[in-house]
Amino acid sequence: MKLGELRTVGVLGAGRVGTAVARQALKAGYMVKIATAKPVDEIAMIVEIVTPGAIAVDADEAAAADIVVAAVPLHKYRTLSPGVLTGKTVIDVMNYWAPTDGEVDDFENDPRTSSEIVQEFLAGATVVKSLNHIGYHELEEDGNEPGAPGRRALALAGDRDDAKVLVAGFLDRLGYDPIDAGPLTAGRAFQPGTEIFNGSHTAEQLQALLSAATESAHA
User: Fold this and answer.
1) CA geometry: angle at 111 spanning 110 and 117, to 5°?
2) For the chain, which terminal residue's Cβ has fewer other Cβ atoms within 10 angstroms, N or C?
3) CB 18 within 8 A of CB 11
4) From CA 37, how far away is CA 169, in angstroms rounded?
5) Cβ-Cβ contacts under 8 Å for 50 (sequence gap 6 or more)
6) What is the Cα–Cα distance from 78 to 47, expressed in whole angstroms?
7) What is the DSSP string of the chain?
8) Which of these CATH numbers, 3.40.1180.10, 3.10.20.600, 3.40.50.2300, 3.40.50.720, describes 3-217?
9) Res 4: pLDDT
10) Gap between the Cα atoms of 118 and 123, Å rounded
11) What is the pLDDT of residue 3?
12) What are the structural domain ranges in the chain?
C-alpha cells in the first residue's frame, strides 16, 4: 500500500491510549474503527461518547483497516488474532512496565523486547513499534504542523521498510516528526525507563539519543 492510500485506521483496544490515538487520527482525517474483546453493541455507546466520529466494530473489521493500532494491555496481547492480522501493518503501542503492571513471564524471562515477542506471536503481520513513548494526553496536545519550530518527534522501529514508511506517514499526519530508529530490536531505546521514553524531544534531539543508544549497544 502506498502512503497516500492510507485512509482507515483500526484500533484494537478502547483504553486511554487507544482512544487518544483514535481521536488524534480522526482529527487528522482518517476513518477510525475501534474494537475490543466485547461485542459491538456493548461498546457502541462508549465509542460514540469517548471518540465521537469513530465506528465501533468487531475485531475482524478493525483488522481489515489500512493500518492497525494494537492498544490492548500488554498482558492481554494473546487476545489479538494472528489470523485476522496476517498481512497487516500493526503499530505496537504497548509497553512492558513490571513496576506498574506486575511481572509477566512472557516478557520477564525473555531477553528480547516486548515488540519482538509480539511480532513472533503475530507472525503473519508486520509489527512496527511506536506511539508507546508519548503520554495519551500529550498525544492530543503536542501535535503540530510539519515544519513547526520545536515540533515533537516520535521514534519508530520495525523490520520492513515499506511498513515503516506507512507508519511514518501516519505519525506525520498525527502531528509528529517520525524518526526511524532501525529494526524492531531498536525499540529497546525507547522502552519504559529510557531517556527517550521519559521526555519530549525534537527530531534532532531524538536522533542524537537514538544514535547514542546504538553506540552503547555495540560498545
Assistant:
1) 60
2) C
3) yes
4) 29
5) 14, 19
6) 23
7) --GGG--EEEEE--SHHHHHHHHHHHHTT-EEEEE-SS-HHHHHHHHHHHSBTBEE--HHHHHTSSEEEE-S-GGGGGGS-TTTTTT-EEEE-----HHHH---HHHHT-SS-HHHHHHHHTTTSEEEE-SSSS-HHHHHHS---TT-TT-BEEEEEES-HHHHHHHHHHHHHHT-EEEEEESGGGGGGGSTTSHHHHS--BHHHHHHHHHHHHHHHT-
8) 3.40.50.720
9) 57
10) 8
11) 54
12) 3-217
Round to whole Å and give the CA distance between 51 and 26. 9
Q: Are 85 and 63 in contact (CB under 8 A)?
A: yes
Beta bridge partners of 127: 90
> What is the rounded CA–CA span in Å between residue 198 and residue 206?
12
Residues facing residue 52 across a β-bridge: 54
Relative to beta strand 55-56, strand 67-70 is unpaired
Residue pair 93/34 in contact (Cβ under 8 Å)? The answer is: no
Express each pLDDT in 37-51 by its tens digit.
Answer: 999 999 999 999 999
Confirm if 158 and 181 have CB atoms less than 8 A apart: no
Question: What local confidence, expressed as pLDDT, does residue 32 receive?
Answer: 98
Q: Which residues of the chain have pLDDT under 50?
A: none
Cα R_g (the chain), whole angstroms:
16
What is the number of helices (H) and of strands (E) in the chain? 10, 8
